[in-house]
What does this fold into?
Amino acid sequence: MKDIFKLFASVGWAGEVLVRSTLHFPSVLWRRRSRAELVTQLYATGIRTLPVVTVVALFTGMILSLQVGLELARFNQEMYLGAAVMLTLIREMAPFSCGLCLAAMVGSAIAAEIGTMKVNDEIDALVIMDISPLRFLAAPRILALVLMAPLISFYCCIIGTVGGGLVGATQLNVDFGQYMSSAMSMAKTKDLFVGLLKALTFGLLIGTISVSEGLGTRLGATGVGKATQRAVIVSFLAILVSGYMITRMWYR
Amino acid sequence: MVSFDAVTKRFGDAVVLDGLTFSVAKGEVFVVIGPSGTGKSVALKHIVGLLEPDSGTVRTSSDRIGYLFQSGALLAWMTVWDNVALPLVETTRLSDAEIDTKVRAALTAVGLEYDADKYPSEISGGMQKRAGLARSIVRDADIILYDEPTSGLDPVTARSIDRLIFRLNRERGITSVIVTHDLAAALRLADRILLLKDGKAAFCGTPAEFLASTEPNVAEFVSAMKGGTDEKEE
Ligand SMILES: Nc1ncnc2c1ncn2[C@@H]1O[C@H](COP(=O)(O)OP(=O)(O)OP(=O)(O)O)[C@@H](O)[C@H]1O
Ligand SMILES: [Mg+2]
It folds into this structure.
C-alpha cells in the first residue's frame, strides 16, 4: 500500500517536472545564455554518444540481417532482406537502441550531475537566488534529448541498414545494390514518422525521468548512486512500455 | 527583519522545531548556537522559504536574502566569475559591462579579485566560502544567513572569514544570522546570541548576558564546549 502511494507520488513528481520544464523550452531558445547551454547539451547528447551509438546500430543491423536472412533463404526470398531489415529498424529497433543508448549514457549522466548538485546544496542555492532549477538545468537538458533523439534514431537506421547490407553481401549472397533498392522500396513515410515520433517520446521520457530522479536525490553520495541507477532502470521500462503503446496506436 | 512566532516543524515523528520564537533586528549580527541536530540549519531554511513551518509563522521583510551554505554551493562547471555573475545573468537585464563591474567589485570585497577565472575545485574551502559570499553581495543582499561559515577551516582562515562577515555588517549594514559551533567567535561577533536546544530558544540575549546567565542550559552548553576542547588537548 505504501509502495503504491510512493509510486503515484513519483509519477506525479515526474509529471510536474515534465510540464514545468516544457513550459521553459521557449525561453531556452530565446535567451542568448540559455542557447549557449543548449548547444553544450546538444553536444553532450548527440556528439559524445556517437561512437557507441554507431557500434550499437551497426551490430543491431548485422544481427537482424543474419537472423532474418537465414530464414528468408529457406524460402528463397533473400531479395526481400533489405526491406525486412530496414522496416524493422525504422519502426522499432532504431528508436529502441537509440533510446537505450541515450538512457545509459546521457540519462545516467544527467541524474548523477543533478543529484550531486542536490546533495551539495547547489539546487537550494539556485532556488534562493530565484533561479528555477527546472528552467536553468532541466529545460536545456530535456530539450536537447528531445531534439537529438530523432536525429540519432535516423542515424541508427542508416548505419543499421548498411550493416545489414554488408552481412547480406558477405554471408548471404545478397547483392548490396539489390539489398538497398529493396530497403528503399518498402519503407513508407508513415514508418519514418512513427519511428521518429517514438524516438522523440523516448528522449522526452529519458530527460524527464533523469531530471526527476536527480532532483529527488537524498542521503549524500550513496543517494546519487541510487538516483542514477533508478534513472536508468525507470527509463528502460518507460522506453519499453511507451514503445509498445506507440506501435499499438499506429499499427493494428 | 526576521521573526519566528511559535514555529513548529516535524519530520515524520521527530519534532525538530518546537514552538520556536525569536526575532532579528535590522543591521544586527545574530548568532545561533546549539548542539548538533537541534534544528539550526532547519531554522535558517525557514527564513529563506526552503522549508515551510507546520504551525506558527515565519516573517522575513526582505526579498534579497543571501545564504552561505557550508559547502559554498558553487556550481562546479563554472568559474568563480561565472558563479558570482550567475544571479545577475539569470535574473536581471543588466548589460555585460555592468555585470562585470558588479562582479569585480564583489570579488574585491571578499579578496578574490585575482581568482576570478579559477574553477571551484581549484580553490581552497575558505576561498569557496568567500566566493559564495561574493555571490550574495553581488545581488545587494540586505540580509545574509551563514550556516557554519568557519567549520572545517583552519583558525587563521576562520578568523579572516569572521572579520569579513563583521566588515560586511558594519560597512554595508547587512543583517547577519550566523549559525556556528565556535563559541569564542560567537561571543566576539554577536550583537545577540540565541541558544537553541530541543527545538526551543533556551536563551536569547547579548554576549554579556550570555556569560552572566544562570540558565542551566547555557552553563551546560558552555561547559560542554570547554569539555570538548579539553578532550582534544589531552
Ligand atoms: N529535509 C529533512 N528531512 C528529514 N529530516 C531532516 C531534514 N532536514 C533536517 N532533518 C532533521 O532535523 C534535525 C535537525 O537538523 P539540522 O540540520 O537543522 O541540525 P543542526 O542543528 O543544523 O545540526 P548541525 O550542527 O549538525 O548542523 C536532524 O535530526 C535532521 O536529521
Ligand atoms: Mg546544520
